[in-house]
Amino acid sequence: MVNFYAVNLNAQRRFDKEDFFLKAYNAKDIRNIAIAGHGGRGKTTLAEAMLYTAKATDRLGRVADGTTVLDFDAEEKKRKATVSTAVAAIEWNGAKINIIDTPGLFDFAGGMSEGIRAADSVLIVTAAGSGFDVGAEKALKAANARGISRMFAITRCDADNTDFYKTFAAIKDAVGGAICPVIVPYMDGGKVAAYVNLASRKAFDYSNGEKKEVAMPSDPQLDEMLDILTEAVASSDDELMEKFFETMELSAEDMAKGLKIGVRDGSVCPVLCGSAVTGMGVDMLMQTIVDLVPVATDMPAEAAEDDDGNAIEVAYDPNGPTAAFVFKTISDQYGKFSMIKVIRGKVTSDMSLYNMTTGNTEKLGRLYTMKGKKAEETKEICCGDIGAIGKMDKVKTGDTLCDPRKVVSLKQIPYPAPCYSMAIAPKVKGQEDKVGTGLNRLNEEDPSFTLTNNAETKQQVISGTGDQQLDVLVSK
Q1: What is the pLDDT of residue 25?
Q2: DSSP string, 406-474
Q3: Nearest Cα to Cα of residue 115 among 325, 410, 366
Q4: d(CA 293, CA 97)
Q5: In what order do the strands lie in the sheet with 202-205?
Q6: At residue 432, what are phi and psi to the nearest 5 degrees?
Q7: Where are the beta strands (DSSP E) in 73-148?
Q8: Whether 255 contacts 199, CB under 8 Å
């Protein structure tokens, strides 16, 4: 009886482990979106609302309470602000969305660079009533430099004394004719009465915690927004432009087609709205991401170098020889995770890949999908997907892992140059080596700072992008 129970228990354990692996996705089902913008505009709160709406979490995390999935570091909880990039995967209507939450504070701009390097589109977050912030401008420039699509989310639309249309006008003045409103609020008596999807010509009321479709409101402000959207969409495609001139209107199907084309080639930047705190409009935002963000196989080829240092391009190819880029390292008391974006082929556990930086062939360990600090094991990471490799001690941020028979070196992350320095010393004399070891480990997580030994002053000097970044390093 005991033996029978043990055999069945082991079988059950094997089943549970197999069942634990997450669903595998194809490149066409994956959307990688970096959430960026000015500090304090609600980026992490929006990401948490997406997780909660997609049922990836059972409660809505709050930055103020230190309960968010993505701001899991002790320094982030203490400061109530994002200081490093974090990733969480969700599923929405059959598609996998990799949310890459990036810091908005300028001292942690290296984190934004890492997030945008791994993304296929950037969602720039602003708050209703604000102007076009410097942080939004920096995020826009980073997206443009990478050559990927841009979208804007205006949150806090239901807060008191806010103005969506003021912020929309500020974005349009800064960005120009590519800006087009897709989801906008219908205001009645100074409050949001409905959220309107102009592309599908549908309006929704989220009052009383329920979403229900309502009649399309008649409003001059909505008509003006629809005209802006229609003109931007018509400009994205010659066939649509011709049809627009003939009929002076476009159908919902034409809108969907034009938006997809325009977002992919960068000629259209959709503007969405909602409230992350209440979750109003977040489902429409996620569906817009699924509908419009380009999949990996639609992305332009990545700049790279071959083994001889010649400039080449690496196209996104699910069936090609494997090539993956390490864009982030997470190192804590539980171990080390190397976050990768797979550009070509696929990555499986126990695979051997060549590291172009070190010249070593690395045998990979277990693979994971990350949700903040939580790691969920997976069998493979396919082309275009983001995941993590566990316990790769010799692999660092910026490394390219590739098929030994087809070696490539992918373009590095453009970190900001250090411009602020501080001399440091251990509290207990004689522990300089121990402090140096700790800082080297932190440097694996954050390569945007440098550590040097000043020969003249005989001091250890750390240099970064600002006092807040160095304060976090010293605290750690």
Answers
A1: 86
A2: S--EEPPP-PPPP-EEEEE--SSTT-HHHHHHHHHHHHHH-TTSEEEEETTTTEEEEEESSHHHHHHHH
A3: 325
A4: 10
A5: 183-188, 191-197, 202-205, 212-214
A6: -60, -40
A7: 86-92, 95-101, 121-127
A8: yes
**What's residue 60's pLDDT?**
94
Place of tokens 């190397």: 338
* Rounded Cα distance, 227 and 249, in Å: 9
Residue position matching structure tokens 């069998």 = 379
What CA–CA distances, in Å, run from 209 to 44, 143, 189, 230, 278? Answer: 22, 35, 20, 32, 8
Residue type at position 218: S
Considering Cα of 70, then 85, then 312, then 400, what sign does the dihedral take? negative
Question: What are phi and psi for residue 336, nearest 5 degrees?
Answer: -125, 135
Task: Residue 81: name the closest of 474, 476, 472 by CA.
Answer: 472
What's residue 20's pLDDT? 37
pLDDT value, residue 476: 85
Going from the C-alpha of 125 to that of each of 69, 198, 402, 407, 466, the distances in angstroms are 19, 20, 35, 38, 23
Burial class, 74, CB count within 10 angstroms (exposed 0-12 / middle 13-18 / buried 19+):
exposed
Q: How far apart are CA 376 and CA 452, in angstroms?
A: 37
Chunked in runs of 10, what are the mean pLDDT values of the chain (476 residues)? 31 34 80 97 97 95 95 94 96 96 96 97 96 96 96 94 93 93 94 95 91 95 94 90 86 92 95 95 97 94 94 96 97 84 95 95 94 93 96 94 96 94 87 84 91 86 94 90
Kindly state the tokens that stand for 79: 């400061």
To the question of pTM greater than 0.85 for the whole model, the response is: yes
